[in-house]
Amino acid sequence: MNIKLNGADHTLSDDASVTTLVSHITGRVVDSSGQAADGRKIGVAVARNSEVVPRSQWAATALAEGDELEIVTAVQGG
Amino acid sequence: MTTASTEAASTRTDALVIDGVEFGSRLIMGTGGAPSLDGLGAALLASGTELTTVAMRRYSPTETGSLFQLLVDHGIRVLPNTAGCFTAKDAVMTAELAREALETDWVKLEVIADEHTLLPDAVELVDATEKLVDRGFKVFAYTNDDPVLALRLENLGATAVMPLGAPIGTGLGILNPHNIELIVSRASVPVVLDAGIGTASDAALAMELGCDAVLLATAVTRAQNPVQMGEAFKHAVIAGRLAKQAGRIPRREHALASSAMEGRAEFL
């Protein structure tokens, strides 16, 4: 399926969930609770179609064609 | 018996308490403007800060190193901000994302009016504070040096109020010390002087005016020697706090001799 990720076109397998996407983008294994399996903080948040998806819901949230996803993290500022 | 040294030590351990969390340092650092993560880490360590702001932006896989991980590794608590937000709606969304990403309900609320002044938009700021407090956030409200607005934000449930000394990044220091003193005198939440700090004496002045803490970024990250400037601010904040607690002498119109006039030797 085709989605928008952080404003750019992105192609994913049809059964992809938010967890699949986060794992793919960060290169980290993400467990069912939305934490990185390596025990270190993953430090990202996800909004799907302008709604925040809590990390506890990442695994259960299936993506759909045309979804607009934002993945954000902490950067220098303030 | 209380000795001079134990008295001084106890003064130095008076902790900053925000939302029940104790901080040994009253210097809150920002992270904007540093050319590299390594240099930033060294400057943060030199400053002794225990609380540091970050911005929330799109994740980039090409970014090397994680700022969040750097702060976690150094035991520095993270304070996400809503920098770049012009409306309450954007600020609330950014705060929600920060809460998810960084697992904290603390947020430095920044709602600016325009990119030219970067000054807070009072109307949006009030609206956003109300909404975020409703949603269970601990709001650190970045505000104008307006005593009326500061009190309004506190009454809406802000955890701390953060009046600016001068516009962000200007290094002009504290433009209206009287207003800062007025804000401090009426506040019952921590007051953090935020923005406009240029050099160490500005931070010392903020503490002498009665602020509970100082927040700065550019003054360190863009200094010619950020590590040394970080250390300078560490001492400035401590010195200002001690001076405030020690109680300064009143200002006088005319000179006052500190040596007695009696008992002077007489010369022919």
From TrEMBL, chain A:
Transmembrane segments: none annotated. This is Sulfur carrier protein. InterPro entries: Beta-grasp_dom_sf (IPR012675), Mopterin_synth/thiamin_S_b (IPR016155), Thi_S (IPR010035), ThiS/MoaD-like (IPR003749).
